[in-house]
Amino acid sequence: MLRRIEYMNESIKTINYLGKEHGNFNQEWLAHHKASEWWYATGLLNDENNNLYSYQIVLIKTAFGNLEPWSTQLALTDFTNNKHYFFEKAQKDGEGYSVGDNFAKRDDLLSIEKSNDGFIINAEADNFSISLQTEFGKGAFWHADNGYLVMGKPELGSTTYYSYPSMPTTGKLILDDKTIQIKGNSWFDKQGGEFQSLNPLSQWEWFSLRFKDNEQVMLFSFPQDDYQDGTYITDHSQRLNKYTITPKKIIEVDGIKFSSGWDIDLPGIKDEHYTLEPIMAGQRNGAYYEQVSRIFDSSNNHVGDCVVELLPGARTPDFKSDWGKR
């Protein structure tokens, strides 16, 4: 069943959340009534001098009963100059947002549009702007149980989750009044459902391993629940439930604990053992803690890169969200 929620002059097209009985990729693009969800892209891009940048753009809807606050988050890291930029605008309703069959937008801050060939992304933050054109690459893949992911424990809820994990990307970045031509690869997630988003037990650590051979591994783990799920993607997908993530250390940022640096064991998958080493110190992007990392195999060869996103409740059991103060 479709619903349409009107916010001022903008509209958000929604469907009901159906869990395991979800629709196809296009249907699940839409917002879900009384669900928490996000349209989320990260990418690793180089300029003409091979300087490395990473970006994160995300539209987030969080459901609290009949309330559905939204936020827009935009982040950029300039690894050559060791600089990180983050912009967020959060509000208690969906005014200024619109979601349709082929787009998700927040006024002039962020636009994600699907074309016949890929995504067109335009983001405008205080300190930077970015305009990107992606291809769909190898296409979209469901994660976990054919797109159905339990959020730690069944009683905490679930989400529907798919990705476009390998999208060739070109575009331009405007930073410090300079226009920079960039190209590389992006990963797009659409995920959402009915779950206890503020319960620390439902907060996760997410690893998107992007290998140079154009294979990918997505790992979604809940350290407090000792539950994990994941996907190995070649030209098809394979569910991963048996793997081990061992943090090299636990750090503390703003009184919140996060893991940092990891040994990952993937029995029966590729070279099975990998080490992730953050390129630079991590950054707090609103609710997320981001660490872009190099992937090394057991022979210490650099075989890919990984964007790691960590939620505060994953390692801090008594974490309390500040959403009510926004």
Automatic annotation (TrEMBL):
Record-annotated AttH domain positions: 37-191
Alphabetized Pfam families for the sequence: CrtC, Lipocalin_9
InterPro entries: AttH-like_dom_sf, AttH_dom
Residues in coiled coil: none
Protein name per UniProt: Carotenoid 1,2-hydratase
Gene source species: Companilactobacillus pabuli
